[in-house]
Amino acid sequence: MHGGFHLTDTFWQFVKDRNVSSLDLSYNMIMDFNRTAFTENCDSLTEISFQGSDLFWLSGDASPSPKPCGSLRFLDISEITLPKLVQSICQITIPIENYFPIKILIKKVIDFRNVETVLFNQFCNERSTIVLRNITIVKEDIECNVRWKNVSLNGVGLKELDIQMDKNLCFDNNHTTLSLNGNIMEFINPSVIHSMGKLDTVDLSYNNFAYMMTHNTSLFEILFLSKTLKYINLSYNKITHLSHNVFSQCIYLQTLNLSGNYLEDIEFHINQTLTMLILDILRSIF
């Protein structure tokens, strides 16, 4: 299409009529995206990628569809360039703090409740700084029908994630993978990890959790109090030491990556697990 793609009702009707299941629109110019037409004609789609695309205009109704994209399981909106009218959110420090309690209105903020893998990597192309501080979330507005399993927020400029999560949040019930690497993170509330009852993989690499270890030691020590974790990546976080019991509850841990830190010694206990396969401390002992 001349000058880029126009994802209007004609395009999305074509997708529906041809029963398209996989749609890759990565690294394209999208001149217009009609959200209403998309949600009305996306039932055949199982995966869709907008990675690296330039989005110039959003049209259609902004209200989420009651049952949008029922077959969709994979969504990638990493590295997209937003329309100029909303680009400002990616160029400022975003402090959100001292909100409690908060009720999550899932129907209004999540349009893809059946998706299992959601990739938001470099969503603002690392131009923003996001601070979420002293926030308490109480409950949601719907039953537990959010299927998100693998969530990736790599390189989005996240600095603090201080959210007190309810362990009964159905929004977190299915999460198995949480990836937050390549941010500028200095703090994460342990309840974020603890609330994910099925979480087995957490990637916090390429951040600055040495700050949390130094200034919020007691909370850092309970960060991994989860018996479901199998893979932990804390590489390249400027960490100098770890307490004896920081991984003591990880009885099914298989891979622990501490490479690229400044560890002076290995003192933490990992003998409680018989499943450990990989301990990576490359370039980590000084």
Automatic annotation (TrEMBL):
InterPro entries: Leu-rich_rpt, LRR_dom_sf, SLRP
Gene3D superfamilies, sorted: Ribonuclease Inhibitor
One Pfam family, short name: LRR_8
Keywords from the named record: Leucine-rich repeat, Repeat
SUPFAM superfamilies: L domain-like (SSF52058)
Domain of life, per lineage: Eukaryota
Name of the protein described by the UniProt record: Toll-like receptor
